[in-house]
Amino acid sequence: MKLRKANMHYGKMKLKKIYFKLYGEEISASQIGKVIRKHDLFPDQIKAEKQRNKLKNTTKKNRIQKLDIKPEHWFLLHLDTIVIYWGSVKRYILTAIDHHGKIAYARMYTTKSSRNAKDFLYRLYYLIDADILNVQTDNGSEFFAEFEEALRQLLILHWFSRPRTPKDNSVVERFNKTLQEEWLNDGHFTPNILEFNQELTVWLEEYNFARPHQTLDYLTPYEYLENTLRKQQQLLPMYSTSAKS
């Protein structure tokens, strides 16, 4: 500790060398690292805190490849963020789509924060009005902290794509492409959050209630949901042959 405090900018290997010269004893670089972390002996505390958060965010992640995806509405929702550059202005569109039924939602924000991702999740949960079992995201910073706390409160499991592997979340990537090609690129962007989200809501109504989807045999997502619910209601209860009337 004394050696580190006197040489705060020296790396572990340099400290190891000096330690041997001073005391004639070998000490491993990993042991020096443990002392530095245990006693928080970092010259730049802000940088050290960022590094700790980065390490915390990269451990114990559920990878989407391990999830056995069931063909059910709301079993898995894919989430993502689209970054929009408008001159010197940046805007962020959070997007979500149901893996099975393709019902989608989106909303624009001024910043990419876990608080806004939490707000988006609660709005999504309110609109669906049903239990969501799993969500999949990439490893963006907005999908940690307050977002993960909201997932725990709503009893939703969080699954992650592999880094730099867009195909892991191809369902929402396809929705993002549709949003951009069929709406954004037609001149509908405005940096005004209120105006943008109002106009976006109109397009989302068309997407979910009027636009036929090839993957749904050219039904709209809402028609497909209605058909699924209707089929479930038509199922008769089953009894064993020994059951009494």
Structure in words:
It is a single chain. This protein is α/β, with parallel strands linked by helices and 245 residues long. The protein has 2 domains: 2-42, no CATH class; 64-225, Nucleotidyltransferase, domain 5 (2-Layer Sandwich). Helices cover 44% and strands 14% of the residues. The protein has helices at residues 2-6, 12-23, 29-38, 45-57, 114-128, 146-153, 170-182, 193-209, 221-234, and strands at 76-86, 89-98, 104-109, 134-137, 157-160. It has a 5-stranded mixed sheet with strand order 3-2-1-4-5, sandwiched between helices. α5 (114-128) runs parallel beside α6.
Give the N-terminus to C-terminus distance in angstroms.
Answer: 80 Å
Number of helices: 9
Mean pLDDT, all residues:
89
Q: How many distinct folded domains? A: 2
The first-level CATH class name of the largest domain: Alpha Beta
Low-confidence stretches: 238-245
Q: How helix-rich are the residues, as a percent range? A: 40-55%
Summarize the structure.
This protein has 245 residues and is an alpha/beta fold. The chain is built from nine helices and five strands. The protein has a five-stranded mixed sheet, with helices on both faces.
Write the layout of secondary structure elements.
Elements: H1 2-6, H2 12-23, H3 29-38, H4 45-57, E1 76-86, E2 89-98, E3 104-109, H5 114-128, E4 134-137, H6 146-153, E5 157-160, H7 170-182, H8 193-209, H9 221-234
Helix pairs in contact: 2-3, 5-6
